[in-house]
Design a protein that fits this description.
Layout: H1 6-17, H2 25-36, H3 39-51, H4 55-83, H5 87-94, H6 99-131, H7 135-138, H8 143-148, H9 151-170, H10 173-200, E1 203-205, E2 211-213, H11 214-222, H12 231-249, H13 255-261, H14 269-303, H15 314-321, H16 326-360, H17 364-383, E3 393-394, E4 400-401, H18 403-431, H19 434-440, H20 450-473
Helix pairs in contact: 2-10, 2-13, 2-14, 2-16, 3-12, 3-14, 4-12, 4-13, 4-14, 4-19, 4-20, 5-6, 6-9, 6-16, 6-17, 6-18, 9-10, 9-16, 9-17, 10-14, 10-16, 11-14, 14-15, 15-16, 16-17, 18-20
The chain binds 4-fluoro-L-phenylalanine.
Length: about 475
C-alpha cells in the first residue's frame, strides 16, 4: 500500500464529488493520447525532423520524451489525481503561496484556445476540398494563402470547428470526451499506418529522369545526418526537440492535470504515462514516415526544406502528383489530421471549462455555452488576422508574427518553459518529489522509474527549462 496522508483522503472525497470522470484506464489513455496527438505530431514533428538531421532529431526526441516528457507528464497527471482539482486550485492546494502558478498555467489553454480552432478550420477546409475533388486547385502554390486571407471562408471554417469542439465538451467527460476519443483514436491510428505503408510504395521519375522511391525517402528520414554538425547546431536540435515535447505531450498547461483529476484511484499512472508516450511518439514517427518519403519521391531533398508549409502547401502538391489515388489519400490524410486536431482542441476547451466550473460554481452546460460564445469571437478575430486584422509584429526570437503566431509564441515558447521551471521547483524543492511518488505508488503500484523521476524533477528539469525560457525571450541568442 502506498502511504497516503490525510490530504489525499480529503482529496478522494472531493474526487467522488466530481460531476463525472473517465470510466477506466483505457478511456483515460485514449483521451490523454487524443490530447497529445495533434497537429504537433503530424505537422511540426516531420518538418523539424527534416530540418534537424532526420534520425539525429528522432533519437534526441525519443530520449527527451522518455526523460523530460515522462517527468512532466507523470507530474501533471499525479497532481490532478491527488488533488482532484484543476490547475488554478490544484497548485494553491499544494502550497497556498504558489496559487499564482495555477493561474499562469490556466492562461496557457486560455490563450491556445483562441487559435487552435482556426488551425482545425484550415484542416476542415482541406477535408472539404478533397471531398469535392478539388485536389488540383489545392495543389496550386497560392491556394493556402488565398484561403486564409479570405475573411469569409477562414471565419466560417474556424467557427464550424469551434462548434464541433464545443458540442463534444458540452456532452461531458464520459459521454463526450471519452466516447469521441475511444472511437477516433483507433480509427486515426489505422489510417496513419495505412498511409505510411502506402507512402513507402511510392515511386516517381522526375523531368531530369531521376527515379526516387519511398524506401529511399525512408532511409533519408531515419538516417542520422551528422554532416557539418557543430556544438551550436546540436544545441539548436536539442532546443527544437525540447520545445516540441511540451507542445506534443500537452504538458505544463494544466490539461493533463484536469484529465488526471478525472481518473479513479485504480488507474495505474505509471503504465498510463508509458502508454500515452507510446501513442505520441508512435504517431510522430509514423507521420514522418508518411510525409517525408512522399515529399522526397516527388520533390527530392529540396522539397523537404519547405518547413511549416509542408502540410498545407507541399503535401497537396504530392497528392496531386499521385496518379488516380491522390484524391483518396489526400482525403484520408486530412480526415485523420482533423480527428487528431479535434481531440486536442477538445482537451483545451475542457480544461478551460473545468477550471471555470470549479471557480465560478457553474454547471457544465452553462460554462460551455459561455465559453463557446467567447471563443467563437476570439477565433473569428484570430482567423481575420490574415486579412482585416493583419499585423506584422517582430518577436524577440527574430520572427515576424501575425495574431495566431503571437498567441502561439506567448503560450508555447514563452509560458510553457516558465511553468515547467516553476512547477519543477515547487515539486522538487517545496512539496518534495515524494508527494508525486506516493500518488503514483498508490495501491501498491510499482513506479518503475522512481529514481529517474526524483533526479529529473529536482536537478535536470529546472536547469534546462530555465535555459529554454531564456532562449525564448531572446536573451540567449
Ligand atoms: N499536443 C497537441 C499536438 O501535439 O498537436 C497540441 C496541443 C494540444 C497543444 C492541446 C496544446 C494543447 F493545449
Amino acid at each position: 500500500m502506498g502511504t497516503q496522508g490525510t490530504g489525499t483522503e480529503g482529496t478522494q472525497k472531493k474526487h467522488k464529488k466530481k460531476e463525472s470522470g473517465f470510466t477506466g484506464q483505457i478511456g483515460f489513455v485514449m483521451a490523454a493520447a487524443g490530447s497529445a496527438v495533434g497537429v504537433g505530431n503530424l505537422w511540426r514533428f516531420p518538418y523539424l525532423a527534416a530540418k534537424d538531421g532526420g534520425g539525429l532529431f528522432i533519437v534526441i526526441y525519443m530520449i527527451l520524451a522518455l526523460t523530460f516528457g515522462f517527468t512532466l507528464l507523470t507530474s501533471d497527471i499525479a497532481i490532478g489525481r491527488r488533488t482532484g482539482m484543476n490547475s488554478i486550485r490544484a497548485y494553491a492546494s499544494m502550497s497556498p503561496k504558489w496559487k499564482f502558478l495555477g493561474i499562469v498555467t490556466f492562461l496557457v489553454p486560455a490563450i491556445i484556445m483562441t487559435y487552435y480552432a482556426v488551425i482545425g478550420g484550415w484542416i476542415t477546409r482541406y477535408i472539404v476540398v478533397y471531398l469535392a475533388g478539388e485536389g488540383k486547385a489545392a495543389a496550386s502554390g497560392d491556394f493556402f494563402t488565398g484561403f486564409i486571407t479570405d475573411p469569409k471562408q477562414s471565419v466560417i471554417y474556424a467557427v464550424v470547428f469551434m462548434l464541433l469542439t464545443a458540442f463534444i465538451v458540452f456532452n461531458g467527460v464520459e459521454k463526450g470526451i471519452e466516447k469521441c476519443s475511444t472511437i477516433l483514436m483507433p480509427v486515426m491510428m489505422i489510417m496513419i499506418i495505412a498511409i505510411a505503408v502506402f507512402a513507402l510504395t511510392l515511386k516517381n521519375t522526375d523531368a531530369q529522369g531521376v527515379t526516387r522511391t519511398g524506401l529511399q525517402g525512408l532511409a533519408v528520414y531515419l538516417t542520422p545526418n551528422l554532416e557539418g554538425i557543430t556544438i551550436r547546431r546540436l544545441m539548436q536540435v536539442l532546443l527544437d526537440a525540447m520545445s516540441q515535447i511540451f507542445f506534443s505531450l500537452s504538458v505544463s498547461m494544466g490539461i493533463m492535470i484536469t484529465y488526471g483529476s478525472y481518473i479513479k484511484k485504480d488507474v495505474n499512472i505509471n503504465s498510463a504515462v508509458h502508454q500515452i508516450e507510446f501513442f505520441d511518439c508512435g504517431v510522430a514517427l509514423l507521420a514522418g514516415m508518411m510525409i517525408i518519403p512522399s515529399i522526397f519521391v516527388f520533390d527530392g531533398i529540396e522539397g523537404m526544406k519547405a518547413g511549416p508549409s509542408l502540410m498545407f502547401v507541399s503535401l497537396p502538391k504530392v497528392f496531386n502528383s499521385m496518379p488516380t489515388l491522390g484524391r483518396f489519400v489526400g482525403l484520408a490524410f486530412f480526415l485523420m489530421a482533423g480527428f487528431a486536431a479535434l481531440t486536442s482542441c477538445v482537451s483545451v476547451l475542457e480544461t478551460i471549462t473545468a477550471n471555470c466550473m470549479e471557480i465560478f460554481h457553474l454547471h457544465r452546460r452553462n460554462a460551455t455555452i459561455l465559453l463557446t460564445v467567447l471563443y467563437t469571437i476570439a477565433s473569428v478575430i484570430v482567423a481575420l488576422g490574415y486579412s482585416l486584422f493583419y499585423i506584422e509584429l517582430p518577436l524577440p526570437n527574430g520572427s515576424v508574427a501575425q495574431i495566431l503566431d503571437l498567441m502561439d509564441y506567448i503560450s508555447n515558447s514563452f509560458m510553457m518553459p516558465f511553468i515547467s521551471f516553476l512547477s519543477s521547483i515547487l515539486i522538487g524543492w517545496v512539496v518534495g518529489p515524494d508527494w508525486i511518488v506516493e500518488e503514483v505508488e498508490y495501491g501498491g503500484v510499482t513506479f518503475s522509474l522512481k529514481g529517474l523521476y526524483r533526479f529529473m524533477i529536482r536537478y535536470v528539469v529546472p536547469v534546462i527549462m530555465f535555459i529554454l525560457f531564456l532562449q525564448s525571450t531572446g536573451i540567449l541568442g
